[in-house]
Fold:
Amino acid sequence: MSDQYAVAGNPIGHSKSPAIHTTFAEQTGQDLSYEAKLFELDSFSEQAHAFFGAGGKGLNVTVPFKLDAWQLAEVLSKRAQRAGSVNTLMVGKDDKIYGDNTDGVGLVRDILQNYGGTLAKKRVLVLGAGGAVRGVLAIILAEKPKSLMIANRTVAKAQTLADEFADLAKVSACGFEALAGQKFDLIINGTAASLQGDLPPLPDEILAEGAWCYDMMYGAEETVFNRWARQQGAGKTMDGLGMLVEQAAESFFMWRHVRPDTAPVIASLRAQLG
Ligand code: ATR
Structure:
């Protein structure tokens, strides 16, 4: 029987992970199956153990179970420890359950490799201070930006995150209105505002000349944040579709030790979005 993999979430019907991983497997000649699993909300641990108990090799974990997966993992990668959440579980040779978080690598690889950008020496602004942002901060800081500011509606949450990562680099925190008069070379939107078609209340003129903007969300239509960015004169706007495929590729690499080619998969998903 092929090695079994799955993505667990609730809801899960919309997940693109089965299509992505199945394409990766075909591309690389890996003999595996990958399916979407709807997990009940109150018993992640039992269901994950049942999956691994039945011979499952690896599990991707999505909303709302990333914290449960972090708690379930017996061994956490350094980046997962920092992220405070896990999106990739696997059984090790020692039969222990390993937890990793590939979201930060997915984001940074999309900006660096797919768009040819850089974070090094840039003034970076991250919007939001929830789990999505916590998951990527350490990997952003590893690129050595000139500065990193976290802006959030609830300033105290931004400050808590900034303090938590202060041992890696200087990280500042503020509310949206306090951004007025500052300039940034790269803005990454990690708020859940886009999900509701909302835009954080950002002051005008905070983009430096040619600044890039990245929305961790994506959709068939341009996101409200990216529309704002374009109207503010951004040099480039990017959405989270590439991040989705790159985080999947990193999970695939953790599991199978081969790197799939992400470009055709991103292009095909983009075409399907319409
Ligand atoms: P996730 O795990 O997806 O990051 P979360 O932990 O609920 O979800 O965090 C959501 C983030 O989006 C938070 O930073 C939230 O701001 P608050 O901390 O002030 O709640 C932000 N957010 C959600 N809706 C928003 C909106 N309409 N405008 C601005 N920020 C918003």
Remarks:
- The first strand starts at residue 3 and ends at 9.
